[in-house]
Specification:
The chain has helices at about 25-50, 55-80. The protein is mostly helical and about 80 residues long. The longest helix is centred in the middle third of the chain and has 27 residues, at about 25-50. The chain starts with about 25 loop residues before the first helix and ends with a helix.
């Protein structure tokens, strides 16, 4: 990026080579923690829904997942000529 396209910064760190748009490590850690917590809540909710399904619906769901995984594996094998 050339100097022409760099944003003008009003803070005292201008010209020191620091990136004003870089996120701080604590901000990244907070985002990572939030993503983990949200993922845990979603997976727990999914498990509760799955555990309440009747057996015939669980069997249909298993068949759909097996078919999806088999399709993806065959697609990857075709791409990599395995």
């Amino acid at each position: 990026m050339t100097d022409i396209f760099k944003p003008i910064s009003d803070n005292a760190t201008a010209g020191t080579g620091s990136d004003p748009y870089a996120s701080s490590p604590s901000n990244d850690a907070g985002r990572t923690l939030l993503a983990g917590v949200v993922g845990g809540i979603v997976s727990a909710a999914g498990y509760l829904v799955y555990s309440r399904l009747p057996d015939d619906q669980k069997d249909r769901l298993h068949a759909q997942v097996r078919q999806l995984v088999e399709t993806r594996v065959n697609e990857l094998r075709g791409r990599f000529n395995i």
